[in-house]
């Protein structure tokens, strides 16, 4: 995984500005600053309007600004990458199994009632932990079986983010593999100076399309229990700037869930722990070269968010896509 991605690439304008600043200080820039009018300095300072994050409506709007863009015409890509851990026994530590790297593209539409429709598309490829290369086959360390690796490629992962009377706060209305559910949108906010910390959690349990009877080798059970935790760090000044529709972030994505169907683990004990970094991008061109190349070759449609016409359609997941594209393996 490329650890430099927590330090965003600077634009040409940023680089030029840095050179001008360095030259100004070295060549009498301090005197120039002393002669600059106070009104000019104030004019250059972004405006700020305090946000009451205890208010569900303001909290939801801030969350959209942070994770995507309030402008319905703009699409926002986000990168993630890290390691997946697991083990089949409870008496020994988890071990790293495989790497993962991918991205999503999101677009949002605010509704008259203040809720938001979120149009999201996501893909990811698995990597060899030693070489860092993307892989098409994986040797299961428990069964020694050679497994065909299936990338994450979910064309539609839409959601309706609302202020819910049922949960007395923010919530998500979302299709989980054919089951429409309303679950709490746990938005946690913490301030530390000008840093704003955001925690977003989704905890779900829903019927699996991969039933053990039909998919004995691929099914992890009749019910899929999944926990996803997203933690972001942003500038409070950026969030509170009323003249912008998007705020930058970097953070982590943690996921606890069942074995992936292509791992052929069936209902063996154990869960998968995804530990990844993530960051917001200004555009697709900021994706790492290797990830962009393999996506161009295999999944070029994933460079854009789902269209508005996708609203109301069934969402995809690694499990439903596998069921649609694969044939059940015979039981051992």
Question: Which features does this protein show?
Answer:
332 residues; alpha+beta; 12-stranded antiparallel sheet; 7 helices; 19% helix; globular; disordered N terminus
Protein model, in words:
- With 332 residues, the protein is of the alpha+beta class.
- The protein contains 7 helices and 14 strands.
- Strands 1, 2, 3, 6, 7, 8, 9, 10, 11, 12, 13 and 14 form a 12-stranded antiparallel sheet that branches. It has a two-stranded antiparallel sheet with strand order 4-5.
- A hairpin with a 2-residue loop joins strand 8 and strand 9 (179-184).
- The longest helix has 15 residues, at 12-26.
- Residues 1-39 have low confidence and may be disordered.
Oligomer: single chain
- Evaluate the radius of gyration: 22 Å
Mean pLDDT: 89
User: Which structural class best describes the helix and strand composition?
Assistant: alpha+beta
**Helix amount, in percent?**
10-25%
Binned strand content: 35-45%
Uncertain segments:
1-39
Shape: globular
- How far do the termini sit from each other? 36 Å
Number of strands: 14
- Order of helix and strand elements from N to C terminus: HHHHEEEEEEEEEEEEHEEHH
Question: How many helices does DSSP assign?
Answer: 7
Major sheet summary line: 12 strands, antiparallel
